[in-house]
Amino acid sequence: MQNKTIVQLLKSEPTHHKVMVRGWVRSFRSNRFIALNDGSTINTLQCVVDFENFEDEVLKKVTVGAAIEVVGLLVESQGQGQNVEIQVSNLTVLGEANPEDVKRTILSPKRHSLETLREQAHLRIRTNTFGAVMRTRSKLAFAVHEYFQKNGFNYMHSPIITGSDAEGAGEMFRVTNLDAKNPPLDKNGNVDYKEDFFEKETNLTVSGQLEAETYAMALGKVYTFGPTFRAENSNTSRHLAEFWMIEPEVAFYDLAANMDLAEDFIKYVITYALENCADDLEFLENRLLEEEKTKPQADRSDMKLREKLRFILENNFKRVSYTEAIDILKSSKPNQKKKFKYLIKEWGADLQSEHERFLVEKHFKCPVILFDYPADIKSFYMRLNDDGKTVRAMDVLFPGIGEIVGGSQREERYDILLEKMKTMNIDEKELYWYLDLRKFGTAVHSGFGLGFERLVQFTTGMGNIRDVIPYPRTPGNAEF
Amino acid sequence: MQNKTIVQLLKSEPTHHKVMVRGWVRSFRSNRFIALNDGSTINTLQCVVDFENFEDEVLKKVTVGAAIEVVGLLVESQGQGQNVEIQVSNLTVLGEANPEDVKRTILSPKRHSLETLREQAHLRIRTNTFGAVMRTRSKLAFAVHEYFQKNGFNYMHSPIITGSDAEGAGEMFRVTNLDAKNPPLDKNGNVDYKEDFFEKETNLTVSGQLEAETYAMALGKVYTFGPTFRAENSNTSRHLAEFWMIEPEVAFYDLAANMDLAEDFIKYVITYALENCADDLEFLENRLLEEEKTKPQADRSDMKLREKLRFILENNFKRVSYTEAIDILKSSKPNQKKKFKYLIKEWGADLQSEHERFLVEKHFKCPVILFDYPADIKSFYMRLNDDGKTVRAMDVLFPGIGEIVGGSQREERYDILLEKMKTMNIDEKELYWYLDLRKFGTAVHSGFGLGFERLVQFTTGMGNIRDVIPYPRTPGNAEF
């Protein structure tokens, strides 16, 4: 007897053979039709029971959320929308789900808001929406690995606990083992981190880039894919305190090669999702359409979810210098009419989400890569251009979501990097190893970072980043 | 003109076409033969320069560690051990490596101990040994993903920062944002975690299992692959404070299916390494042979590295109950002759590494899966057997390395789990969500954890776990 998953059975022909399936009851209509789901697909398998052949005691336990095992013949389905169904000959209830208890949870068969679902994050994965999102997330993660491995990159695990807080990419979480109330103090009355587990102050990483550079300068092509952390008190639909980041880093790549890589990579993973998550994306597309119906016309997207994904594949990412972008923005209607919250007055301004979205959604109407940003608003490690005022930075901007990738060519020249670190108060002693890369066989190299949850958001159409990671961590929230 | 990596060029025919390669100088013999490496393979490409055609000023800079770009024809190699070499027509030094500076680092071409290499972890990746280890690590990681994805598992990112410290798997690191010296206190004089970032005390995860269970009970088959942390002060060659763990979890799997999964999975990833890391494993095998020459005969392994890997593939993992193992150990020679450090006196004893290795290496001479351990020495979530004294736990034991996998069937019965939690002082309120899984459609399910670094150690033959992760974190050490 075959023990197959529902995704396999739904694809197979009606063999009239006996099969066994286990899963959870999604619905039980007319004491006859069980819609069974086992998580392998968003679709349910119809299991038809002839109630006269089963004890009432058993059938009573076939309720929403219960785990059951059915055995029966796989036959042509009489119903619509599926090829096959099971004529149940044996039915075992493995685990009940008391309807009174179910009623108090999001498992109850009615519409629950995403906010309510978030509060029961351990159960929300049993809903269609979260099943679809998390299966897609898994496939996207695999596509990331497959892309890089196929292209000769080495996966590198950069450290999570870090003794260097030099990068200044954002506020950090402290990792410690000291007594929380009465930490040991040194003779100056400061906390004595020499007594801590690592004998120094340590934090959670905000980026694996600097360590990835050390590996790129030996292995050539590397990428990281791991959790990163920001202790920023921003309670928005775009920020998490804990999120997963992908950071490729490549020796001998200049900024143009870096842009090519970013574009090629993003197109690969989106193609992979379209090809491997068809059912889930169809469901999510319809979900989004429903959701948008509740919004004013102006806020609705003019493309359906999969159209938006294909749009990315079919367009070249438009490459625009920061200087050019500023000119466009300065003379743009929303700037002239003071519709922007932050008006663009002069070169050097930091671009806000509203500006990025204007460029992508209104002006160019395609994905945009902005590059050559003013040095003053970017990080110390970015390659200074010959003009002395811009750096080889790039941001990939997407419709609806804004920045999805940020990267740069790295400053490979020892003297210039050292000077920059001094100017920007980066501790050169602490980052001696980063400087060493410029001392021993330095070379042009580049890389970028992509926040994985932003990619999942874009691909699934979920509006809130808390709904694309299993257990979101945000200010005041570390449940489960 | 082709811009290929060295691994590609070494596989190609001598085309007599012009190619361009960039990499780092490993050696420069007789002012004529440059051994060039770009990290894509352990092998170097021979680049032949006719010194009469090049400025002395340029050739002087072609020193160990320098980054160079060469252009030339790809021709038959005159030397041994490779098909092709490059007849260099253009040579550009991209980044020098001052020999005086190099001399002070592990880049200097002489033998350095693994301990010394560890102190310069940002440079050790440029050595043959670490290049081989880290390329193999990357391939193994991909094999992990490929195996699970091919078999219908969903990759799940379990949270890293966790508000629950209930599992009791080991000492944890605290994650905090509070002032280290003067934390806010509540009215009872205790640290007021309500003021902390997450408004509660949070720690770094020791395992993603409990959260993975919530996903398995909806998606069916899931796996995690992420960093986990133990704040244990164990300075051994087998322990890290930060390490990567793989944790599959499957609904409807009993312990037997769990054992099948573990065995099939391990064989898959080792096969993948043998097929995809041939050059690196050959190098590591020879490295190990050299290393073992320095050891007394008795401590040397009787199998070469790849023999040991194939041995795993060719043997069925022997399944032995704990009770059976105790009988074997009790009457074993080392127990009778008091050679074990911990003598086995009676049923219930916790097995030590020496016992595990005796069973694997001396008694059964093959990988062993021990199962049905005494409940008292195992975790609260393990499925109690009908005998009331053992649980459905399993450990996979490997030669040389001991435990590589630990897993169990999980207790799926609400009442029994609750009672166990009470007995073992596990806070049921904090783990209400874990109990919920047994309330709504509970079912038999199982999973295991595999420490990724142990797998990399086994596959690469590296004796110290600090040498199989880029930047090891251990007591007193969080450099880089």
Automatic annotation (TrEMBL), chains A, B:
InterPro entries: Aa-tRNA-synt_II, aa-tRNA-synth_II, aa-tRNA-synth_II/BPL/LPL, Asn-tRNA-ligase, Asp/Asn-tRNA-synth_IIb, NA-bd_OB-fold, NA-bd_OB_tRNA
CDD domains reported in the protein's UniProt record: AsxRS_core, EcAsnRS_like_N
Gene3D superfamilies: Bira Bifunctional Protein, Domain 2, Nucleic acid-binding proteins
Record EC number: 6.1.1.22
Protein name as catalogued: Asparagine--tRNA ligase
Family affiliation: Belongs to the class-II aminoacyl-tRNA synthetase family.
Annotated organism of origin: Aequorivita vitellina
Broad enzyme group: ligase
A single MF term (Gene Ontology): nucleic acid binding
Main location: cytoplasm
Catalytic activity: tRNA(Asn) + L-asparagine + ATP = L-asparaginyl-tRNA(Asn) + AMP + diphosphate + H(+)
Keywords annotated in UniProt: Aminoacyl-tRNA synthetase, ATP-binding, Cytoplasm, Ligase, Nucleotide-binding, Protein biosynthesis
Gene: asnS
GO cellular component, one term: cytoplasm
Signal peptide start and end residues: none
GO BP, one annotated term: asparaginyl-tRNA aminoacylation
Intracellular or extracellular location(s): Cytoplasm
Domain Aminoacyl-transfer RNA synthetases class-II family profile: 134-470
NCBIfam families reported for this sequence: asnS, PRK03932.1
Spans traversing the lipid bilayer: none
